[in-house]
Protein: SLAM family member 5
Organism: Anabarilius grahami
Amino acid sequence: MLHLFALLCCSWNPVGVFGDIDAVKSVSVMEGDPVTLKPGVAELLRNKILWTFGDQGALIALIDAGQISLFDGPDGTFADRLKLDYQTGSLTINSSRTTDSGPYEVNVKGGPGDQVRKFNLTVYSRLPVPAITRDSSQCSSSSSSSSNCSLVCSAVNVNHVALSWYRGNSVLSSISVSDLRSSISLHLEVENQDKNTYSCVLNNPISNQTKHLDITQLCQPCPEIYSCGFTEPVTRLVITALVGVAAVAFVVYDIRSRDAK
């Protein structure tokens, strides 16, 4: 009898149909796309279903006594964007925003005790195509090598991304940023006559954007103005000084000529 009692105790699961109450399901979506959070059961035996959002557990959706209620959430962030399926209890967020990222929880009350499932939603910003430019300081530097080309790949207003330089399919260098709406850049130096294929890739866990490098277009020889940039002002100064001396000499000569008369 004791053995049977112990077996029943070990096999009883108070969490119910949702499984491990501490398990958190991660969900990712691109900004602007809809996303649906599903309780994950075929049939819900319930008297009440509650959906909450954020660390403070703000109530955003409710089924109670056969009625569906939707709430705008903190600062009205979910206004007119939520949909709750009465049959499945699934919550859909339309036109997702990066501010929708965070923890969600569904609590089904009724039946064999409360049943809880947790989600962590990440909404990623749509990625811009990275820009490749030549490092403007290279031509102005007297120590820069004319056979090399210094390049910068950059992107602005991005978050939770990585920026990488590739030669063919091999990663040469990479940098990442997690700050909200940051700028990111990465340098690369190649030879002007390099025949390899280079590309710069901006990516997050669910998408990427690629910009291919055109060495022929970007890595042109520096204009001559940079090599004579110092000589030209000096030449102008010398010419101005010579003109001034000539003018003074003419005035002195004119005065002496008049005195001689």
Summary: The radius of gyration is 35 Å. The CA atoms of residues 181 and 202 lie 14 Å apart. The first helix runs from residue 2 to 11. The chain has two domains: 14-124, 131-226.
